[in-house]
Design goal:
Length: 181
């Protein structure tokens, strides 16, 4: 059976998906382009040929993750332009643990100037999008993003996964308080 050849664009998307998984699992410093290549089933030189460097691959993964958040927020707002609708949509995204964990990895790697500028720009875009889609004032948007960050941290710690481990009382208390607002 002949293998179907992927276009460079398709292969790039495949590599970004593998990068999201790899960088979410072991962070920027702990992940090599070889790790991503193995996960994607390509050679490490091919990864470098497409992205140029680990840094640019990491940035592509961060951009992919934030694009996903923007997309789910736009889709949710198309149904109901309210912070609660965006929050419900983000809850569904938290089930994809790799995306929120990658965001945290991006924040941690922001001391690298090239990464930091992208992470700050993308977080700012999400903030502005929340305000634009819902009409939220700055205080409400900050509160919404703060709660989202807390849920992101809980998801990264696997504290929100049902049945994974006994849920500590404080986790339920925080999650219930956020969801109740």
């Amino acid at each position: 059976m002949a293998r179907t050849r992927l276009t460079a664009s398709e292969r790039g998307a495949q590599l970004v998906a593998a990068a999201v998984q790899a960088f979410a699992a072991t962070g920027y410093a702990g992940t090599s382009t070889d790790d991503v290549a193995r996960l994607a089933g390509v050679s490490q030189p091919y990864v470098i040929r497409l992205f140029g460097s680990k840094q640019r691959l990491f940035i592509a993964a961060i951009e992919h993750a934030t694009d996903q958040i923007e997309t789910i927020f736009r889709e949710a707002a198309a149904q109901q332009a309210a912070l609660s609708a965006l929050g419900d949509a983000y809850d569904r995204l938290l089930a994809r643990r790799d995306l929120p964990v990658l965001l945290l990895q991006g924040f941690a790697a922001s001391s690298d100037p090239a990464i930091g500028v992208v992470v700050r720009e993308r977080f700012g875009r999400i903030y502005q999008l929340v305000r634009e889609l819902t009409g939220a004032d700055p205080s409400a948007a900050r509160h919404f993003l703060g709660q989202g960050m807390l849920l992101t941290v809980l998801a990264a710690m696997r504290a929100l996964e049902p049945g994974a481990a006994p849920q500590e009382a404080w986790v339920a208390e925080i999650a219930d308080a956020i969801k109740g607002q």
